[in-house]
C-alpha cells in the first residue's frame, strides 16, 4: 500500500480548498463564455501561491465574508486586502481592520499602527457604449485588458445611466454583474446607482432608446419585459440603489451605512468621532438642498426608491412604451414622496450643482454635506464634454463627461485615494487625493486634503 506522506496529507486539502476558492472568485453567474483571461490566469497560479491562498482563506477571520448571501454584497464590510495595508510587513489577509488588533513587529522604532489605504474609482454616464466603458475602466485600473477585475481598486462606483443612446445595454449590465462577483471574491466592491434613464425605462419612457438596441433584446415586448419585470429589472431591484454613501474608512461601516446611524448601530461611535463625515455621497443627478429626504442618508432615499420601483414592476398590464404610445407617467397609487424622488429637485434629475453659479453652490454645499455625513458629493447626469467638474474645492464633483460615442466627450474616471497613517508624535494623518483620470489627456488633481487627528483613538 502506498503511504501518503504527512506533507501530502497537509498540503492536499489546502490545495483543494484553494482551487475551490479561486474558482468561486473567477466563475461568474452570468458570463456566457469565460473571458480569455480566465484561462490565462490559471497558468499564472503557482503552487506556493495556491497554498498561500488556501492558508489565508482558512485562517483569515474574514473568510466568512465570502460566504455572504447573494445580493448582500453591498452590505458586506469593506476589508483591507490586497494593497490597503502598506509598510506593515504583515500578510494583509491576516490583518483585521481595527488597527489595534494587528500583530506586528514590536521593534521599538516601528509604529505598530498600520497605514490604511483605500482606492475608489467612480465613473459617470456610460450610455450604451461598452467599448468606451471598457477603455475607461482599464485606464483607471479597475479592470485588465480582458475586462476582469484587477483587485487594484477597492471600490468601483458607477453613477447610473448605463442604458439608452447606444446599443450595448445587455453586454454592459452583464459585464457589471460579473465585475460585482469578481470584486466580491477579491475583497472589493462594486457600487451601482440608478440614473434617470434606468428609471425612464422602468416607467415606459423610451424616448432615448435606439431601434438597433431594441433588436438586441429580440423584440419590443421582450425588451419591455426585461426592463419592467424581467432580468434587468431584477438586477436593478437587487443590486442598484438611487443613492450611496461610501465611507472612506471601514470603521465607519460598509457602503451605505446610514448617517446618522440608527441608535443601536455598531457604527454610531465612529460616525460621531474623529472620522465623522469621512465619506462621499453618490447620486445620479444631485442632492438638492431643498430635497426633504436627505436623512438618514442614504436609506431614506433608497427606501422610497425601492417602493417606487416595486410599484412600477407590479403594473399589470405594463403600459405600452412611449413613443409611439402616450407617456404612461407614474403608476396610480404613487405617493408624494415617490413622485418627488423622480421630480426635478429629486436625486435623479437635479442639476443645480452643475448649472448654478459657484458662489451660490458653495454657499449651499456644507449644509447638505453636514446632513448626509459626507465630505464630498459626486454626481453624473449633466455632461461636460471636456473634463470632470470640481466646485468648492472639490466638495462638488460632477463626473459625467459624455463618455459614450453618442456624446463624444473625453474618457474620464474619478479617482480617490484615501490614506490614514499614524504620525510618530501620536495621532493620525488623513489624506484625500482626488484626481480626474483621462484616457487621452493629462490627469488632473482636483483636491488634496490633509487633516491631522490628535489622539490615538479613532473611535
Ligand atoms: C446581484 O449581485 C449578486 C452578487 O454579485 C449576485 O449573486 C446576484 O445574482 C445579482 N442579482 C441579480 C438579479 O443578478
Ligand atoms: C428603510 O427600510 C428598512 C427595511 O425595511 C427599514 O429597516 C428602515 O428603517 C427604513 N429606513 C427609513 C429611513 O425609512
UniProtKB/TrEMBL annotation:
Residues 1-25 form the signal peptide. Keywords: Signal. It comes from the Eukaryota. Residues 313-332 are annotated as: Disordered. Residues 119-252 form the Calcineurin-like phosphoesterase domain. InterPro entries: Calcineurin-like_PHP (IPR004843), Metallo-depent_PP-like (IPR029052). One of its GO terms (molecular function) is hydrolase activity. Residues 317-326 have a biased composition (Pro residues). This is Calcineurin-like phosphoesterase domain-containing protein. It comes from Pisolithus microcarpus 441.
Amino acid at each position: 500500500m502506498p503511504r501518503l506522506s504527512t506533507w501530502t496529507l497537509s498540503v492536499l486539502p489546502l490545495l483543494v480548498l484553494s482551487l475551490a476558492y479561486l474558482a468561486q472568485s473567477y466563475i461568474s453567474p452570468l458570463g456566457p463564455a469565460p473571458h480569455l483571461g480566465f484561462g490565462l490566469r490559471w497558468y499564472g497560479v503557482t503552487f506556493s501561491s495556491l497554498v498561500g491562498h488556501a492558508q489565508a482563506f482558512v485562517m483569515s477571520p474574514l473568510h466568512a465574508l465570502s460566504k455572504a448571501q447573494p445580493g448582500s454584497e453591498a452590505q458586506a464590510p469593506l476589508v483591507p486586502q490586497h494593497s490597503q495595508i502598506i509598510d506593515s510587513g504583515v500578510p494583509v489577509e491576516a490583518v483585521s481592520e481595527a488597527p489595534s488588533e494587528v500583530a506586528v513587529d514590536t521593534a521599538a522604532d516601528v509604529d505598530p499602527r498600520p497605514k490604511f489605504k483605500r482606492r475608489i474609482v467612480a465613473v459617470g454616464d456610460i450610455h450604451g457604449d461598452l467599448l468606451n466603458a471598457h477603455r475607461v475602466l482599464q485606464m483607471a485600473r479597475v479592470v485588465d485588458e480582458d475586462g476582469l477585475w484587477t483587485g487594484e481598486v477597492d471600490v468601483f462606483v458607477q453613477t447610473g445611466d448605463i442604458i439608452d443612446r447606444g446599443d450595448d445595454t445587455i453586454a454592459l449590465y452583464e459585464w457589471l454583474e460579473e465585475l460585482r462577483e469578481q470584486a466580491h471574491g477579491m475583497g472589493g466592491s462594486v457600487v451601482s446607482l440608478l440614473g434617470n434613464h434606468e428609471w425612464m425605462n422602468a416607467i415606459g419612457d423610451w424616448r432615448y432608446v435606439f431601434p438597433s438596441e431594441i433588436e438586441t433584446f429580440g423584440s419590443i415586448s421582450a425588451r419591455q419585459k426585461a426592463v419592467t419585470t424581467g432580468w434587468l429589472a431584477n438586477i436593478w431591484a437587487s443590486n442598484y440603489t438611487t443613492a450611496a454613501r461610501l465611507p472612506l474608512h471601514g470603521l465607519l461601516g460598509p457602503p451605505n451605512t446610514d448617517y446618522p446611524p440608527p441608535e443601536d448601530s455598531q457604527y454610531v461611535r465612529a460616525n460621531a468621532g474623529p472620522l465623522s463625515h469621512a465619506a462621499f455621497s453618490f447620486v445620479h443627478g444631485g442632492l438638492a438642498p431643498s430635497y426633504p429626504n436627505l436623512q438618514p442618508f442614504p436609506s431614506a432615499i433608497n427606501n422610497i426608491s425601492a417602493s417606487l420601483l416595486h410599484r412600477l414592476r407590479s403594473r399589470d398590464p405594463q403600459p405600452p412604451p412611449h413613443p409611439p404610445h402616450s407617456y404612461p407617467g407614474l403608476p396610480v397609487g404613487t405617493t408624494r414622496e415617490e413622485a418627488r424622488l423622480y421630480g426635478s429637485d429629486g436625486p435623479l434629475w437635479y442639476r443645480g450643482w452643475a448649472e448654478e453659479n459657484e458662489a451660490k453652490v458653495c454657499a449651499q454645499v456644507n449644509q447638505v454635506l453636514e446632513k448626509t455625513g459626507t465630505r464630498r458629493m459626486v454626481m453624473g447626469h449633466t455632461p461636460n464634454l471636456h473634463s470632470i467638474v470640481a466646485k468648492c474645492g472639490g466638495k462638488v464633483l460632477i463626473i459625467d463627461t459624455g463618455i459614450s460615442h453618442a456624446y463624444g466627450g473625453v474618457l474620464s474616471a474619478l479617482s480617490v485615494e484615501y490614506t490614514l497613517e499614524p504620525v510618530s508624535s501620536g495621532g493620525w494623518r488623513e489624506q484625500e487625493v482626488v484626481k480626474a483620470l483621462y484616457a487621452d489627456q493629462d490627469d488632473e488633481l482636483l483636491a488634496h486634503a490633509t487633516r491631522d487627528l490628535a489622539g490615538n483613538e479613532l473611535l
